[in-house]
Amino acid sequence: MNPPSFAHLDSLSNFLAMEVFSRAKELEAGGRDVIHLEFGEPDFQAPAVALEALQESLAAHPAGYTVTQGTLELREAICRKYQRDYGVAVRPEQVLVSGGSSILLFLAIRVLAPPGSEVLITDPGYACYDNLVHLAEATPVRVPLRHKDGFQLDPDAVRQAITPRTRALLLNSPTNPTGVVFRPESLRELTALGIPVISDEIYADLTYGSRPQSILEFTEEAIALNGFSKYYAMTGWRLGYLIAPDSWMPSLVKMHQNLMISTTHFVQDAGVRVLDEGGLECKRMKAEFDRRRKFLLEKFRTIGLDPGYDPTGAFYVFLKYRNPKKSLALALEILGKTGVALSPGVDFGQGGEGFLRFSYANSTENLGIAVDRLAESGLL
Predict the structure, then answer these.
(1) Domains and CATH numbers, the chain
(2) Dist CA 272 CA 123 (whole Å)
C-alpha cells in the first residue's frame, strides 16, 4: 500500500502562538519564570453560579444526549440575552448550541460558501479564520486593516474585494488581534453590500466606553456567533452558539447532527444560570480588564511605545515594534531573553507582520514586570 498523501492539507498553516507556548513550557520545565501574554484566555474562575448549576445538573439527571440544537432552556436564555443586551429579538428556533464556537464558525462558512467560492476576511484577523475557510474548500480573500486608519474596516475596501465568487464576509468586532471595535456606521454599511455576514461576536460584551453591539442590529441576513469563553471566563467549558435565519437552520442542524450530535447537558445548564444570574461577576471581570488595558497602555507610553491607535475592546494590544526582525523570530528571541511570551503578528496574516500581540488577560503586576523586562532588553 502506498503511504497516504497529505498534500490536500498544505494550505493550512500552523498556529504560531502555540509554537511560542510550547517553547515557553520547555523553559518553565527548566526552571525559567515565564509571563504568559500570548493567549487570549481570562485568568478568572467562571462565575460561581456556573459551578453550582453544574453540580446540580449532574446530581439531577444523567449526562446524556440532548437535542442537537441545544436545550430549549439555554436557547431561551440566549434569546433573553440578545434582547436585553443588544435590543435584538431572537427566537429559540434560530439558535444552535455546540461545544464551543469554533465548530460553529466552520459550519457557518460551510453553509454559505460552497467549494470554490470566496469568503472575505480581514488582514490582520484571527489566525484560524484562514484555515477554517480552507477546510470548507473555499478561498479566503483578505481585506486590509491599516494601522494608520486605527485598524478600522473600510467598507469601500470590502466593496472592491467582492467578486462574482464572493459568498460571505467574516467579521470580528471587537477584533482579535487589535482589540478595535468597528464603528456602528461601518457595520451598517457593510450589511448593505448584498452579501451575507458571519459575525464572530465572542468579544462583543468586552467593550470599554461604548455599549456592546451585534450585527443582528443591522441585518437579519447574517449569522452571529457567540459563546461563553471570553466574557464569562469559561474557555475550558466549551460552550458556544450561533444565531441564524430560519431558512438557513435546517442545513446547519444537519451538519451539526453528523459532526457533534449534541452538546453536554450539564454545561448547557451552567450556561443558562450564567446568562440569567452571572451578570454582576462578569461586570467585575470586565472592569478589571479595562483597568489592565489602561495600565498597559500607560506603561507602553512611558517607555516611548505608544501603540498609535485606540484598542477599546477584547483584551489585546497590537504593538508595532521598531526591531527589523520578523515577528516570529522576535517573539522567540524575546521569550528566550526576557521570559515574556507574546504572539507574533504574522500569526494573524501578512498584515500583522511587524507587530506583536499583547494579551492583558493577566495581572497588572505581571503586565508591569513584562513591560519593564522588554524595556530593559531593548528588543522592541
Answers:
(1) 7-45+280-377 (3.90.1150.10), 49-277 (3.40.640.10)
(2) 35
